[in-house]
Amino acid sequence: MPDPAAPSSRPRLAAGVRLTFDTRRGIWLLLCPERIIELDGPANEILSRCDGRRSVDEIVDDLVARFVAERAVIEEDVRSMLAELAAKRLVQM
């Protein structure tokens, strides 16, 4: 089976899914049909870059430039999160 979060994939939020900031609670939310997911850690940084134009590799490069962490660690975080969300049909690759 092909890797859904392959380096050349260009992820985007699925139809009906939105990323928003709840100013009252001070947290990022992923608004999905029939559910709301509270985001923590780097999730909003990853998802805000999922615009269908940038590849997974480009998203990783951007995060490596922004945060102090090894590329391999960031790449694993990005790829595993995107694969999980793609399996739930919240992100399209």
UniProtKB/TrEMBL annotation:
Keywords: PQQ biosynthesis. Signal peptide: none annotated. GO terms for molecular function: quinone binding. Pathway: Cofactor biosynthesis; pyrroloquinoline quinone biosynthesis. GO terms for biological process: pyrroloquinoline quinone biosynthetic process. Monomer. Interacts with PqqE. This is Pyrroloquinoline quinone biosynthesis peptide chaperone PqqD.
